[in-house]
Predict the 3D structure of the following.
Amino acid sequence: MSWRAVVAIILLIAGGLLELIAVLGMCVMRDAYDRLHYVGLASFGAFLMCLAVLIRESFSLIGDKALLVGLILVLTGPILVQTTVRSLLIRELGDWRAKARERHEP
């Protein structure tokens, strides 16, 4: 077994554990705002899995696509969370800025 295969297996296990923790956290949390904290953890788990594919396959067509998918997941995770929070606030309060106004008004 080569060192690349060993590192890829370690990264796959680490990514799978992060995904498992993220899923369990999403199941345990009470409301959507608490569940959104685990989106970042899930995207980093997927990134570790994509990194494992890159190490195993090197910089080839498959490895490059895996790296691209991992980067897209990590970079778009915060955008997804922010958009979801704004949607929830609009649904609950009518305006996503209403919560901030409540904090600043005396």
User: Anything to note?
Assistant: Residues 61-93 form the longest helix (33 residues). The CA atoms of residues 40 and 77 lie 6 Å apart. Helices lie at 3-28, 32-35, 38-57, 61-93, 98-104.
